[in-house]
Amino acid sequence: MASKTSSLWRSLRTYQIYGANTNVGKTIMSTILCKAFKRQFPSQNVWYLKPVSTGPFDEADDRHISRFSSETKTKCLFQFDEAVSPHIAARSSQPLSDSEVRDEVLAHLTACSKDGEGTILLETAGGVHSPTPSGSSQADLYRPLRLPICLVADHRLGGISASISAFESLHIRGYDLDTVLQFEDKMYQNHDYLQEYFEKKGVPSLSLPPPPPRGQTEEEDQEMMSEYYEKMSKLDKVEEAIFSLAEKHQKRLQNLEGMSTRANNTIWYPFTQHREVSPQSIMTIDSASGDFFQTYNSASKQGALVPTFDGSASWWTQGLGHGNPELSLTAAYAAGRYGHVMFAGTIHEPALQLAESLLRHLNNPRLSKVFYSDNGSTGMEVAVKMALTASFERYKWNVPKEEVGVIGLKGSYHGDTIGAMDASEPSTFNERVHWYKGRGYWFDFPQVKMVKGKWIVEPPQGMESDFGEATEFASLAEIFDIQARLGSSTGRKYSQYIEATLDRLVNKDGKTFGALVMEPVILGAGGMLFADPLFQHLLASTIRTSPLFPSHSHTSPTAWTGLPVIHDEVFTGLYRLGTFTPSTLLQSQPDISVHAKLLTGGLVPLCCTVASQSIFDAFLGNEKRDALLHGHSYTAHPVGCHVAVESLKTMVEMEKEGVWDRAKEDWKSGSRLASVSDQAVQAWSVWSKKFVKTISYLKEVESVITLGSVLAIKLQDENFGYSSTAATGLQKKLLAGSDEFKIHVRVLGNVLYVMAGQKSKPETLRSIEKTLLDALS
User: Fold this and answer.
1) Which is nearest to 579 in space by CA: 598, 592, 560, 566?
2) Which of 179, 300, 394, 733 has its CA 20 to 30 A from that of 53?
3) Is residue 168 in a domain?
4) Distance (Å, whole) CA 644 – CA 660
5) At a CB cut-off of 8 Å and minimum separation 6, what does 102 contact?
6) Which residues does the annotated region (Disordered) include (predicted)?
């Protein structure tokens, strides 16, 4: 879960002491800083915290601080007697998780912040990557707090390399390095080299004479060290370092305070009516970790940051957690190895690995070629180009190009570029786009929703004669039991309606179509519309076999027939709905599919348009103009490709390891009825079954849908649609927060949706469910 409190306080200056290695003098430097802070700010408190310590109690670092800086308030949270690495020392005691350590650290920092103004130093154990009691790296344990760093460099032989490596490890994890502390060594002179190195990066250094050699007796040693600390804490350059640290703390606060005003003056926001924007309405994000932003809290007199759940999963891209260290390191490796290299007629390992991995996991024998672009909209643009060209090469239409359309679904939206926009019906998104011309026909369709505790498939209003009356189902499993439903009266009605509509459009109205384009199962931007999977399955199969689109005979069973079928999986793909590809849920495989957003775990933009061999063959010719003349400067960007390989690998391993098994069991309980066939695809959600059912009964709620990580609540409103403001009140309540954290969500008219990540913790989701129930009750 997120930290339950701020990690930045107005009254409390907090600094984390990291060492480039073990035994580099972190505790000695901490003692000097504690005494210097008390000297410069005598009326303020000075605290010292050692979260994890190993070794004899009498030799503990916090006792050293108490001995030589008696006015400093010291504390150690977890003390292990054995003088070994924390992950070994902790084996003999109760298992200690990173979140437990982090929560205890935050609790202590919060308590200090309430005890008046002051400074606290938090000293880590060993080097930057020394293991935590759980065995992870402490650089990852403390990263969510993002405390400013004082790095104690290594003054010994080899210390230059160790110090720079430590800095880079911290830097790549988003830490801010406020100063470098180091001892002077006349032989190795690391301090001179490192001072120049860090000066170029805007980081000041403080170098000090080393402590005296140990005395012959304990009394002599203590006396010599006391004199050393007294002398060092009075040095002018130490005083300058203290004021520099204090000034940076103040500047950080001032920067956060002013960012929303500066943004209001300079930024043009997407999907935003700026008459409704003011500096007060702009949320300032200082950092992000896991599922949470750390956002600036201008109203608080104490904690300046507040944890805020990212309820739009950063607009549907986030799945593996903000600041995921594995993805960050993967990106850094590719950036260091390649930067970017042009892709026309070349190949690099990340692009090849990703193409092979994606094809393997999609497990669709129709698909064999991967085309790279940079986002979902452009990927859909490519898909439409592919499909229309393939259709023309087969059918040789004798109509103007602008009269060729696509078949799709009402409420669908495939992106903001003109071509992708033209594949959607007129809507709020495109009615003021002057070049827009909707090209096609969009089927209305029955929708799945939970109403008053019951799963129903409901026809569009006024179309009961075409689709039948609303049908109740005992579970989601029954709805996705497509093979069992094909022979039902509902299935027959769907087929008859689709066939009759296509016949009218082609034979009576003279329409020409070149592709079927649809988002499988859930239409995102159109308002989180949950399409009946049976209808989508039959729409694709009917178009593929219809005599209206007479395909020539083909030797390959994977060649497209009828019209090419495009699945826009930009939003719904890659475990968003609980399966690697939502095509599995439809039991229908596309000829072209488009993948973005979760593809790179939310780190960098990238898109893959994946096509069949028969689509690819339509672009083979004797002239360059016959080719697919589409591309981007950053096509197959190595950083994006390498991150995507790691992202896919992580999610596939999560499924194999059973990370979502508890949620699957929750939705399976009571659902495996005798009427559900073995061919049914299990449908499940990370949102609890009991919660979804409970919330569907509330008077303010018209209906609820959930699948995978998606939860959408449709509120009662006479003026429904994208322009509705019914959900904004609930949106504001969630942003006001609970006792634990705020929840940032976006709305689509009268629909409020909350998006979990693929790594969201169950306890976080249960807390959000409680907050939602409280806000709606």
Assistant:
1) 598
2) 179
3) yes
4) 21
5) 3, 141, 142, 144, 145
6) 202-221
> 324: left (phi > 0), else alpha (psi -120 to 50), else beta?
beta
Is 731 part of any domain? no
- Mean pLDDT confidence for 137-143: 96
> Is residue 489 located within the same domain as residue 612?
yes
Instruction: Strand 285-289: give its sheet, edge to edge.
Output: 285-289, 292-296, 305-310, 742-744
**Structural domain includes residue 537:** yes
**Do 235 and 343 share a domain, yes or no?**
no
Residue 627: other Cβ atoms inside 10 A: 10
- Distance separating alpha carbons of residues 520 and 572, to the nearest angstrom: 7
| pLDDT band, very low/low/confident/very high, at 738 (cuts 50, 70, 90) | low
**How confident is the model over 38-71, as pLDDT tens digits?**
999 999 999 999 999 998 888 899 999 999 999 9
Range of the domain at 635: 325-656
Q: What is the mean pLDDT of residues 654-664?
A: 97
Model pTM above 0.70 = yes
Same domain, 329 and 436: yes
Could you tell me the two tokens for 655? 């499924």
Alpha-carbon distance values, 36 to 31, 40, 155 (Å): 9, 6, 22
- Report the domain count for the chain: 2
Residue 764 domain flag: no
pLDDT band (50, 70, 90) for residue 676: low
**Are residues 235 and 371 both part of a single domain?**
no
The burial of 484, by beta-carbon neighbours within 10 Å (0-12 exposed, 13-18 middle, 19 or more buried), is given as middle
